[in-house]
Amino acid sequence: MIAIGEFNTLEILRHTSVGLFLGDEEDNDVLLPNKYVPESYEIGEKLTVFCYLDYDERPIATNLEPDIIVNEFQLLKVIEVNQFGAFLDWGLEKHLLVPFREQRSKMQEGQWYVVFCYLDEKSDRLVASNKLDKFLSNEELSVRVREEVELVVTRQTDLGWEVIINNQHKGLVYFNEVFKEIAVGDRVAGCIKMIRPDHKIDVSLQPLGEKILEPAANKIYETLQAEGGFLPLHDKSDPEAIKEELQMSKKTFKKGIGTLYKNRKIKIEKDGIHLIPH
Fold this sequence. Notes:
Blueprint: E1 7-16, E2 19-23, E3 29-33, E4 46-53, E5 59-62, E6 72-82, E7 85-89, E8 96-99, E9 112-119, E10 126-129, E11 148-156, E12 160-165, E13 169-174, E14 187-195, E15 201-204, H1 213-226, E16 230-231, H2 239-246, H3 250-262, E17 266-269, E18 272-275
Parallel strand pairs: 13-15
Antiparallel strand pairs: 1-2, 1-4, 2-3, 4-5, 6-7, 6-9, 7-8, 9-10, 11-12, 11-14, 12-13, 14-15, 16-18, 17-18
Helix pairs in contact: 1-3
């Protein structure tokens, strides 16, 4: 079966005046138009292509790589808004539709939105939605505390940044857990900090527990080397100064310099921390 909205590896069946016809093992075929045909090929060779519907709603293949595929979240830009909805630039000739019913608020041309791409069961067309909660569930969780996860930043709230966890769940990174610049649409690594009784998930952008010591110590050590062996920071420094210089919390900083001190990498003086020459 040729999957719409996904990459398919298909066999070259025949060449025609309009392009190559590619097929799967179930005798389904799809056209790869001339403008996407490789310079050299052989009948029987296999090509990996992305399949979607063209302007006439017919399956078509391309060797272009879209910015989003089916069942994926991504930050995309609105190119046009008309009577049918908003149209997104996703890297292909035909833009991706977000129907009005799938817009959390009316989308504006030129603005960027995190959307979810899915195959509409009624029309068999690829469409997108920025009503993200419809496609996320925290009822049955596939993550556990301290697990490292992949995040997509979706929006800013009064408490922090809402994130999508592993393309499945919704979580929150509190403002006091953010020590670097992030923005809507960013894909970042994180760690599950807490799972509440109601299955709400608190997420950290830093490793937890013992895992945090070595990366923090390494970052401080590398920064010291880049700064000529001295940083005007110590365990009495203002947390904001530490955050600005190292993008980490004061608690993490203190653990990091503790590790370096125990390993005789630094001296801690009143004016700051100094590398010990080796």
